[in-house]
Amino acid sequence: MLDKMGREIDYLRISITDRCNLRCIYCMPEDGIPDIQHTDILSYEEIVRIVRQAAELGIRHLRVTGGEPMARRGCLDLIRMLHAVPGIETISMTTNGLLLDGRVREACDAGLTAVNLSLDALDPELYRRMTRGGDVTKVMRVLRDAAACGLSVKINAVPVRGLNEQELPGLAELARNSGVSVRFIELMPLGCGADLQPVPTEEIRERMEACFGTMQEDTKRRGYGPAYYLRPEGFKGSIGFISPLSHEFCGQCNRVRLTSDGQLKLCLNHSAGVDLRTLLRGGVEDAQLKEVLRTAIERKPERHGFHESVADRENRRMNEIGG
Question: Can you list the domains of the chain with their CATH numbers?
Fold first, then answer.
Protein backbone atom coordinates (compact mmCIF):
# COMPACT_ATOMS: atom_id res chain seq x y z
CA MET A 1 0.00 0.00 0.00
CA LEU A 2 1.53 3.28 -1.14
CA ASP A 3 0.79 6.81 0.01
CA LYS A 4 0.87 9.90 -2.24
CA MET A 5 4.63 10.18 -1.75
CA GLY A 6 5.21 6.63 -2.95
CA ARG A 7 6.13 5.35 0.52
CA GLU A 8 5.12 1.77 1.26
CA ILE A 9 2.98 1.74 4.41
CA ASP A 10 3.19 -1.71 5.99
CA TYR A 11 3.43 -0.95 9.72
CA LEU A 12 0.57 -0.14 12.12
CA ARG A 13 1.12 0.96 15.72
CA ILE A 14 -1.91 0.17 17.87
CA SER A 15 -2.47 1.91 21.19
CA ILE A 16 -4.88 -0.11 23.32
CA THR A 17 -5.00 2.16 26.38
CA ASP A 18 -3.95 5.60 27.58
CA ARG A 19 -3.42 4.24 31.10
CA CYS A 20 -0.06 3.41 32.60
CA ASN A 21 1.29 2.09 35.88
CA LEU A 22 4.16 4.64 35.71
CA ARG A 23 4.40 8.42 35.30
CA CYS A 24 7.56 8.89 33.22
CA ILE A 25 8.69 12.49 33.24
CA TYR A 26 8.52 13.01 29.45
CA CYS A 27 5.20 11.22 29.02
CA MET A 28 2.74 12.00 31.83
CA PRO A 29 2.26 14.53 34.64
CA GLU A 30 3.11 13.24 38.11
CA ASP A 31 -0.55 13.26 39.18
CA GLY A 32 -1.66 11.58 35.95
CA ILE A 33 -4.41 12.69 33.60
CA PRO A 34 -8.14 11.92 33.36
CA ASP A 35 -8.58 8.47 31.86
CA ILE A 36 -10.59 7.90 28.72
CA GLN A 37 -13.82 6.13 29.62
CA HIS A 38 -13.73 2.42 28.83
CA THR A 39 -16.71 2.77 26.52
CA ASP A 40 -14.77 5.32 24.47
CA ILE A 41 -11.86 3.02 23.66
CA LEU A 42 -11.97 0.41 20.95
CA SER A 43 -12.89 -3.12 21.94
CA TYR A 44 -10.46 -5.86 21.00
CA GLU A 45 -12.95 -7.10 18.43
CA GLU A 46 -13.07 -3.63 16.84
CA ILE A 47 -9.26 -3.49 16.74
CA VAL A 48 -9.06 -6.89 15.07
CA ARG A 49 -11.67 -5.85 12.51
CA ILE A 50 -9.57 -2.81 11.55
CA VAL A 51 -6.42 -4.91 11.38
CA ARG A 52 -8.08 -7.44 9.08
CA GLN A 53 -8.90 -4.73 6.56
CA ALA A 54 -5.50 -3.07 6.98
CA ALA A 55 -3.79 -6.42 6.36
CA GLU A 56 -5.69 -6.80 3.10
CA LEU A 57 -4.23 -3.43 2.08
CA GLY A 58 -0.67 -4.48 2.89
CA ILE A 59 -0.10 -3.93 6.60
CA ARG A 60 2.29 -6.68 7.70
CA HIS A 61 3.80 -5.51 10.98
CA LEU A 62 2.00 -4.52 14.17
CA ARG A 63 3.20 -2.88 17.35
CA VAL A 64 0.93 -2.89 20.41
CA THR A 65 1.47 0.13 22.65
CA GLY A 66 -0.24 2.23 25.31
CA GLY A 67 0.08 4.00 27.72
CA GLU A 68 1.24 0.67 29.04
CA PRO A 69 -0.46 -2.07 26.99
CA MET A 70 -0.24 -4.64 29.79
CA ALA A 71 -2.28 -2.28 31.98
CA ARG A 72 -5.33 -3.24 29.94
CA ARG A 73 -6.89 -6.52 30.97
CA GLY A 74 -6.66 -9.20 28.31
CA CYS A 75 -3.77 -7.65 26.40
CA LEU A 76 -2.27 -11.05 25.64
CA ASP A 77 -5.66 -12.27 24.43
CA LEU A 78 -5.52 -9.48 21.86
CA ILE A 79 -2.03 -10.60 20.82
CA ARG A 80 -3.44 -14.05 20.21
CA MET A 81 -6.32 -12.62 18.13
CA LEU A 82 -3.99 -10.47 16.04
CA HIS A 83 -1.66 -13.41 15.48
CA ALA A 84 -4.53 -15.21 13.75
CA VAL A 85 -5.14 -12.42 11.20
CA PRO A 86 -4.03 -13.53 7.71
CA GLY A 87 -1.16 -11.47 6.34
CA ILE A 88 0.26 -10.29 9.68
CA GLU A 89 3.92 -11.30 9.89
CA THR A 90 5.19 -9.75 13.14
CA ILE A 91 3.64 -8.48 16.37
CA SER A 92 5.75 -6.50 18.79
CA MET A 93 4.98 -4.70 22.03
CA THR A 94 6.38 -1.53 23.53
CA THR A 95 6.23 -1.86 27.31
CA ASN A 96 7.89 -0.72 30.50
CA GLY A 97 8.01 -4.43 31.37
CA LEU A 98 6.75 -4.26 34.95
CA LEU A 99 3.39 -5.90 34.28
CA LEU A 100 4.97 -8.37 31.87
CA ASP A 101 7.14 -9.76 34.64
CA GLY A 102 6.35 -13.46 35.01
CA ARG A 103 4.26 -13.54 31.81
CA VAL A 104 6.87 -13.47 29.06
CA ARG A 105 6.41 -17.12 28.10
CA GLU A 106 2.64 -16.61 27.93
CA ALA A 107 3.16 -13.61 25.64
CA CYS A 108 5.47 -15.58 23.39
CA ASP A 109 3.00 -18.46 23.17
CA ALA A 110 0.24 -15.99 22.25
CA GLY A 111 2.18 -14.90 19.16
CA LEU A 112 4.34 -12.00 20.29
CA THR A 113 7.49 -11.90 18.19
CA ALA A 114 9.35 -8.91 19.65
CA VAL A 115 9.43 -6.68 22.70
CA ASN A 116 10.74 -3.14 23.11
CA LEU A 117 11.52 -2.38 26.72
CA SER A 118 11.52 1.24 27.84
CA LEU A 119 14.59 1.67 30.03
CA ASP A 120 16.13 5.10 30.58
CA ALA A 121 18.48 4.27 33.46
CA LEU A 122 20.07 1.28 35.17
CA ASP A 123 20.65 3.04 38.47
CA PRO A 124 17.65 1.97 40.61
CA GLU A 125 17.12 5.37 42.22
CA LEU A 126 17.41 7.33 38.98
CA TYR A 127 15.10 4.88 37.22
CA ARG A 128 12.61 5.27 40.05
CA ARG A 129 12.85 9.06 39.79
CA MET A 130 12.47 9.21 36.00
CA THR A 131 9.54 6.79 36.00
CA ARG A 132 8.13 8.10 39.30
CA GLY A 133 7.95 4.73 40.97
CA GLY A 134 9.37 1.97 38.76
CA ASP A 135 11.47 -1.01 39.84
CA VAL A 136 14.35 -1.60 37.44
CA THR A 137 15.01 -5.12 38.74
CA LYS A 138 11.70 -6.26 37.24
CA VAL A 139 12.62 -4.79 33.87
CA MET A 140 15.93 -6.62 33.88
CA ARG A 141 14.17 -9.87 34.72
CA VAL A 142 11.79 -9.40 31.77
CA LEU A 143 14.79 -8.64 29.55
CA ARG A 144 16.40 -11.95 30.51
CA ASP A 145 13.15 -13.92 30.14
CA ALA A 146 12.39 -12.41 26.73
CA ALA A 147 15.84 -13.27 25.41
CA ALA A 148 15.51 -16.80 26.80
CA CYS A 149 12.17 -17.24 24.99
CA GLY A 150 13.71 -16.24 21.68
CA LEU A 151 11.92 -12.93 21.33
CA SER A 152 13.62 -10.12 19.46
CA VAL A 153 14.52 -7.66 22.21
CA LYS A 154 15.23 -3.95 21.94
CA ILE A 155 15.89 -1.42 24.69
CA ASN A 156 14.41 2.04 24.17
CA ALA A 157 16.19 4.80 26.07
CA VAL A 158 15.33 8.51 25.87
CA PRO A 159 18.33 10.70 26.76
CA VAL A 160 17.29 13.79 28.72
CA ARG A 161 19.76 16.59 29.33
CA GLY A 162 20.77 16.85 32.97
CA LEU A 163 19.15 13.57 34.01
CA ASN A 164 20.39 10.32 32.51
CA GLU A 165 23.34 11.31 30.32
CA GLN A 166 25.75 9.41 32.59
CA GLU A 167 23.66 6.26 32.23
CA LEU A 168 23.98 5.97 28.45
CA PRO A 169 27.26 3.99 28.24
CA GLY A 170 25.98 1.49 30.80
CA LEU A 171 22.78 1.02 28.83
CA ALA A 172 24.79 0.50 25.63
CA GLU A 173 26.81 -2.20 27.44
CA LEU A 174 23.67 -4.36 27.48
CA ALA A 175 24.33 -5.00 23.77
CA ARG A 176 27.88 -6.23 24.29
CA ASN A 177 27.29 -9.86 25.26
CA SER A 178 23.85 -10.52 23.77
CA GLY A 179 21.85 -9.88 20.62
CA VAL A 180 19.89 -7.09 22.32
CA SER A 181 19.70 -3.78 20.46
CA VAL A 182 19.95 -0.65 22.59
CA ARG A 183 18.32 2.33 20.86
CA PHE A 184 18.67 5.97 21.87
CA ILE A 185 15.58 7.96 20.91
CA GLU A 186 15.66 11.72 20.60
CA LEU A 187 13.19 13.35 22.96
CA MET A 188 10.34 14.83 20.92
CA PRO A 189 8.75 18.17 21.84
CA LEU A 190 5.30 16.74 22.52
CA GLY A 191 3.27 16.99 25.71
CA CYS A 192 5.45 16.74 28.83
CA GLY A 193 8.54 16.32 26.67
CA ALA A 194 8.23 19.91 25.48
CA ASP A 195 9.48 21.11 28.88
CA LEU A 196 12.66 18.98 28.83
CA GLN A 197 15.89 19.29 26.86
CA PRO A 198 16.86 16.54 24.40
CA VAL A 199 20.39 15.29 23.76
CA PRO A 200 21.16 15.33 20.00
CA THR A 201 21.99 12.03 18.36
CA GLU A 202 25.41 13.21 17.14
CA GLU A 203 26.45 13.97 20.71
CA ILE A 204 25.36 10.51 21.86
CA ARG A 205 27.15 8.83 18.97
CA GLU A 206 30.37 10.69 19.76
CA ARG A 207 30.10 9.55 23.36
CA MET A 208 29.56 5.94 22.31
CA GLU A 209 32.65 6.04 20.11
CA ALA A 210 34.67 7.59 22.93
CA CYS A 211 33.63 4.69 25.17
CA PHE A 212 33.69 1.77 22.73
CA GLY A 213 35.81 2.83 19.76
CA THR A 214 34.86 3.09 16.11
CA MET A 215 31.47 1.62 15.28
CA GLN A 216 30.60 -0.12 12.03
CA GLU A 217 27.21 0.01 10.34
CA ASP A 218 25.02 -2.97 11.19
CA THR A 219 22.97 -3.73 8.10
CA LYS A 220 21.04 -6.64 9.59
CA ARG A 221 17.29 -6.01 9.58
CA ARG A 222 16.34 -5.37 13.21
CA GLY A 223 12.77 -4.19 12.89
CA TYR A 224 10.45 -2.17 10.72
CA GLY A 225 10.91 1.30 12.14
CA PRO A 226 13.29 4.21 11.43
CA ALA A 227 16.28 3.28 13.59
CA TYR A 228 19.76 2.92 12.14
CA TYR A 229 22.24 0.66 13.88
CA LEU A 230 25.97 0.65 14.56
CA ARG A 231 28.06 -2.05 16.19
CA PRO A 232 31.25 -1.50 18.18
CA GLU A 233 33.97 -4.11 17.79
CA GLY A 234 33.35 -7.07 20.09
CA PHE A 235 29.62 -6.41 20.53
CA LYS A 236 27.09 -9.15 19.76
CA GLY A 237 24.24 -6.64 19.69
CA SER A 238 23.97 -3.17 18.21
CA ILE A 239 23.51 0.43 19.27
CA GLY A 240 20.63 2.11 17.47
CA PHE A 241 19.59 5.70 16.98
CA ILE A 242 16.14 7.13 16.28
CA SER A 243 16.55 10.79 15.40
CA PRO A 244 13.28 12.44 14.31
CA LEU A 245 14.64 15.94 14.96
CA SER A 246 18.30 15.97 13.94
CA HIS A 247 17.99 13.38 11.15
CA GLU A 248 14.43 13.58 9.83
CA PHE A 249 13.35 10.25 8.35
CA CYS A 250 9.94 11.26 6.97
CA GLY A 251 10.93 10.21 3.45
CA GLN A 252 11.21 6.60 4.62
CA CYS A 253 8.28 6.60 7.05
CA ASN A 254 6.27 3.39 6.71
CA ARG A 255 3.78 3.70 9.56
CA VAL A 256 0.39 4.90 10.67
CA ARG A 257 -1.11 4.78 14.16
CA LEU A 258 -4.39 3.70 15.69
CA THR A 259 -5.15 5.45 18.97
CA SER A 260 -6.99 3.72 21.79
CA ASP A 261 -10.10 5.82 21.14
CA GLY A 262 -10.19 4.78 17.50
CA GLN A 263 -8.49 7.59 15.61
CA LEU A 264 -6.40 6.59 12.62
CA LYS A 265 -3.42 8.91 13.02
CA LEU A 266 -1.33 9.46 9.92
CA CYS A 267 1.64 11.36 11.41
CA LEU A 268 2.88 11.87 14.96
CA ASN A 269 2.92 15.67 14.85
CA HIS A 270 -0.32 16.15 12.89
CA SER A 271 -3.71 15.84 14.57
CA ALA A 272 -5.55 15.17 11.32
CA GLY A 273 -6.81 11.63 10.91
CA VAL A 274 -9.97 9.56 10.65
CA ASP A 275 -12.48 8.69 13.37
CA LEU A 276 -12.78 4.94 12.86
CA ARG A 277 -14.66 4.36 16.11
CA THR A 278 -17.67 6.34 14.92
CA LEU A 279 -17.63 4.49 11.60
CA LEU A 280 -17.45 1.09 13.28
CA ARG A 281 -20.23 1.84 15.71
CA GLY A 282 -22.31 3.37 12.94
CA GLY A 283 -22.47 0.09 11.04
CA VAL A 284 -19.81 0.54 8.36
CA GLU A 285 -19.33 -2.47 6.11
CA ASP A 286 -15.91 -4.08 5.74
CA ALA A 287 -15.51 -2.94 2.14
CA GLN A 288 -16.27 0.64 3.15
CA LEU A 289 -13.90 0.44 6.08
CA LYS A 290 -11.10 -0.78 3.84
CA GLU A 291 -11.70 2.06 1.39
CA VAL A 292 -11.63 4.62 4.21
CA LEU A 293 -8.28 3.21 5.32
CA ARG A 294 -6.91 3.28 1.80
CA THR A 295 -8.02 6.85 1.13
CA ALA A 296 -6.69 8.13 4.46
CA ILE A 297 -3.29 6.48 4.12
CA GLU A 298 -2.89 7.85 0.60
CA ARG A 299 -2.95 11.38 2.05
CA LYS A 300 -0.42 10.78 4.83
CA PRO A 301 1.47 14.07 5.42
CA GLU A 302 4.80 14.44 3.67
CA ARG A 303 6.69 15.61 6.79
CA HIS A 304 6.19 15.90 10.54
CA GLY A 305 7.16 19.59 10.65
CA PHE A 306 8.49 19.63 14.23
CA HIS A 307 10.75 22.55 13.36
CA GLU A 308 8.12 24.74 11.75
CA SER A 309 4.57 26.00 12.05
CA VAL A 310 2.01 23.23 11.52
CA ALA A 311 -1.64 24.17 11.22
CA ASP A 312 -2.89 20.95 12.82
CA ARG A 313 -0.04 20.44 15.30
CA GLU A 314 -0.67 17.59 17.73
CA ASN A 315 -1.19 18.72 21.35
CA ARG A 316 -1.93 15.42 23.04
CA ARG A 317 0.56 13.62 25.28
CA MET A 318 2.38 10.49 24.13
CA ASN A 319 0.31 8.23 26.40
CA GLU A 320 -2.81 9.48 24.60
CA ILE A 321 -1.34 9.03 21.13
CA GLY A 322 0.46 5.75 21.67
CA GLY A 323 4.14 5.64 22.62
Answer: 11-321 (3.20.20.70)
